[in-house]
Amino acid sequence: MRELLQVFERSARREVQRPGDRDPSRCHDGRAGPGLAFAHRAAVRHRGRVRDRDPGRACALQHARGGRRAGGRAGPRQDGLTAPSVSRRRVFITGIGFATPHGSDPEAAFDRMYRGESAIRMVRSGTEDFGADLPLARVDLEAGDIIPKLQSLFMARATQLAMVAAHGALTRSRLLADDRGPAEAGLYLGCGLGGSEALEDAYQIYWGKRSRRLKPSTVALIMANGPASHVSMRFGLQGPSNTYSVACASSTVSIGEAFRAIRDGYLDVALAGGSEAMLNDGTVAAWTRLGVVAKEHPEGAHASSRPFDKERSGFVLAEGAVVLVLESEERAAARGARPIAELIGYGSASDAHHLTEPFVEGQERAMRLALADARVTPDQIGYLNAHATGTPTGDPVELTAIERVFGKGAPGLAISSTKSMHGHLVGAAGALECAITALALQQQRIPPTAFLTHPDPASDLDLVPGVGRPAPGLELALTNSFAFGGSNAVLVLRRVQP
What predicted TM-score, i.e. pTM, was given to this entire model? Predict the structure, then answer.
């Protein structure tokens, strides 16, 4: 068999490669490419027309979209960055589901945040004699009949939160029929740690009790793809089920990849978002030891998350899940759906710099890639939901990156960090902030950076301090997610005219 494959490879190379041509197993720019199989499909099946093909277009498309089909035109350049030439269908958000510290009703939660209300409270982490009181943002989980009792035995808390959010998204999008979702739907969820509390329980049994009698469900509870798997089974979703673990950018990446799959014609509908529940004692202690968790502010626990403020001391850990329903324009129109907002661009970039230290160049590049993908210019963006977590080093880096992209002072751009009210949901943070951005466009209201009383660093940027403000005419918005590990992801959204 090996000899037969070698003969085929030599034969295909002769058919594809003319004198002076590059190795067809490599891309036009010299990078290792998708290999001979792609070159063989592109050339051997269309023998005689190879000379007419753009030698760089196929490999560029492969690197940009992993082999997806071409069509359309490239977008405007942003400092040398150009949107890939791929088929482009419009993609709409037609449903939002919440299981968040501000509740499970997206509109009510947005109203509370618009008023600057915090969901952060003091919580005891650990035991009475061993632990600490910390400002955290928990979810008051009410699953009702959404989660079957038997199935719940195999569900970590992150999975239960995802189930509630997915049910809410399907219900609000009017896609839930006979308690089932659309079978053809894809599922793209972000999750940072999976069932971390189950892993902690297992260690306590093994090391604390010196017992090997762990729960048989331990592995199933720990899996990071547990939320996606259970949502798929519960609602009968038979499309691709993908989980992304990209730290704080997990759910932004999941939404971006679902957006691409629909835009490029691989799916018509998908559920996308994220879920995270890491407020178990051991995980909270690990975050605290890293030195990035906020202390209680003198004003009270509710005011402890203070992005951009001189008195910030770190981020407030939170839990929750948010799921969006994404649909192609054709599918949404065919069933008379009422879109909340339109997704129009996605960019991701790696810092390649440091495991935990933020990096201006990577953040800037992700924003420019998203704008190029959306085919809009920086001056068209009216609102930016910042990643800003409230750490002393992270917030200034993001402000610098924003000014590099939008200009000194970013005239006409309102910027806010809603983490000041809901805390940092880590793997679900991007999904929550994307949903907030979509609602801001729909309602023409910009949420604030709460508790911003002493801006630091001094900046000319409009950081929307205190409470929200009306924003008539707001058409385009952008949301940032920048993760440990140097992973950066950005989404661009557009208002849907009522």
Answer: 0.83
